[in-house]
Design goal:
Blueprint lengths: L7 H11 L28 H4 L5 H4 L1 E4 L2 E17 L11 E16 L2 E13 L12 E12 L3 E8 L21 E10 L2 E12 L8 E2 L3 E10 L2 E15 L2 E18 L2 E14 L2 E15 L8 E9 L34 E13 L2 E11 L7 E2 L5 E3 L8 E13 L4 E12 L1 H6 L5 E11 L1
Antiparallel strand pairs: 1-2, 2-3, 2-22, 3-4, 4-5, 5-6, 6-7, 7-8, 8-9, 8-10, 10-11, 11-12, 12-13, 13-14, 14-15, 15-16, 16-17, 17-20, 18-19, 20-21, 21-22
Length: 453
């Protein structure tokens, strides 16, 4: 889920509390991350720095000369109110529910070795017709790994969340109530200005009971992701031994080759990413692709510092279901709120045009307005939700237009730790939705309180 206020604002708010009254060198608090393990609080070994904010004693707890512990927590309450979910075709089209979760963590450093543990306690209220594992997994282990720093190589083994690039293919599923984690091995190798992450993992399947989440027996992920200045290059391999596309089922082995060019200059910012996929599904070949483009400009000297952004995403679909060739792109493990707060459509067989205007109403209050339109990329394929489930089959419809959406968001960074946000969305159906089933306008109001340190 896109954050409604920049996470960097948290660090900026912390800075006045944590810096010396007359510093010789100002210390920048780490940006609070979603995965949490990327935060480096080692500078708080200075007891004077720890004393300048109430969270300091929790972020750095000295144990011995070369051992220290960092702790923190996230407490989130999110209320979503849906009218005509899936254009009126859902089992519970009108639904109002609450998600609750707590994500404490402890990060122990001993010399060049660390142990990171993050349990999750999550539940829901009033999810209709019934809550699923992503609505609440009870009490379980979200992350737990051991890591060794070997200079240019960092080795990590255990359960961990993964966030690669803009999370088109590998994300944390942060927006829904239960994030996504993986079990396995990761090695980060530093080669000059490049950092290469080598992965061999399996996703964790959330379950409704306590301490019962398990490694997926069917799905696996491996590959290499290289980050260079302004450029990401990657190969990702994926296997699902119980895959389903349309009426076909079988083993899916898919290889993704991708490149991402991103950066900013003056007041402009951009992000362009392309991926080609090949492999085998059941008894036939795979050939699929996606191209995402983003261009934006900030006007820092104008009132409210507007940030204008436009995006165009094209994601391939299957052209002919009568043959054994699969052309539907597989986003595998994408972020949880892919196109916005209301995302009934996922990144499969879709063309998406997006424009947004971000505004800084006050130093701690931000807002955005966005408009989106969606078309099917291929008439031979239907549309899917974010996990990849088919939600509207192509049927006999030749229409491509899926619908249009508008969304407004507002976020207030009430304190360094507390963010309050709201979103209002509407998705009006297009010709394809009208020709294939129920076709009412979806409305959603989202309200969220998120306390983190």
């Amino acid at each position: 889920m896109p954050r409604l206020a920049p996470l960097a604002a948290l660090a900026a708010t912390l800075l006045p509390h944590l810096a010396h009254a007359e510093p010789t060198e100002a210390w920048q608090a780490p940006t609070l991350s979603i995965t949490r393990y990327d935060e480096d609080w080692s500078d708080l070994a200075d007891a004077e720095k720890r004393a300048h904010h109430w969270t300091g004693p929790f972020k750095y707890i000295p144990i011995s000369d070369d051992a220290w512990l960092s702790t923190g927590i996230e407490l989130r309450v999110r209320n979503e109110n849906l009218e005509n979910n899936l254009w009126g075709g859902a089992d519970a089209p009108n639904d109002s529910y609450v998600w609750l979760r707590a994500l404490p963590y402890a990060d122990l450093h001993v010399g060049k070795v660390r142990a990171f543990v993050q349990p999750i306690a999550s539940t829901s209220a009033s999810v209709a017709p019934s809550p699923g594992p992503v609505d609440g997994t009870g009490i379980d282990l979200l992350q737990g790994f051991v890591e060794a720093d070997l200079g240019p190589v960092t080795l990590r083994g255990g359960r961990q969340m993964l966030s690669l690039g803009t999370e088109r293919l590998i994300g944390t599923r942060y927006g829904p109530n239960v994030p996504l984690a993986f079990d396995g091995l990761r090695a980060d190798v530093t080669l000059g200005a490049a950092k290469v992450s080598l992965l061999a993992v399996r996703p964790v399947q959330a379950r409704r009971g306590d301490f019962d989440d398990r490694t997926s027996p069917d799905k696996s992920l491996w590959g290499a992701y290289a980050v260079l200045p302004g450029l990401d290059l990657y190969y990702l391999g994926y296997r699902n031994q119980a895959a389903h596309w349309g009426t076909r089922g079988g083993t899916e082995t898919r290889h993704s080759l991708g490149a991402r060019w991103h950066g900013s200059r003056d007041d402009w910012h951009w992000n362009v990413e392309g991926v080609y996929q090949f492999g085998r599904f059941a008894d036939g070949p795979i050939s699929a692709w996606t191209l995402g483009t983003e261009l934006g400009r900030v006007f820092p000297d104008a009132p409210l510092a507007p940030d204008l952004t436009v995006r165009v995403n094209v994601v391939s679909g299957d052209k002919d279901k009568a043959d054994n060739r699969l052309g539907t792109f597989n986003a595998m493990f994408p972020k949880g709120k892919y196109f916005g707060e209301l995302s009934p459509v996922g990144p499969y067989n879709i063309v998406n045009a997006y424009s947004s205007l971000g505004l800084q109403l006050a130093p701690d209050i931000s807002a955005s307005l966005a408009a989106m339109a969606y078309w099917r990329a291929s008439r031979g394929d239907g549309i899917y939700d974010i996990p990849g489930n088919l939600i509207r089959d192509a049927g006999d419809s030749r229409a491509k237009f899926v619908g249009k959406e508008v969304e407004a968001t507002l976020a207030w960074q009430a304190t360094a730790e507390l963010e309050l946000s709201a979103s209002l969305s509407a998705f009006a159906p297009g010709a394809f939705i009208r020709e294939t089933g129920s076709a009412r306008t979806i409305h959603m109001l989202g309200l969220e309180s998120n306390f983190r340190f």
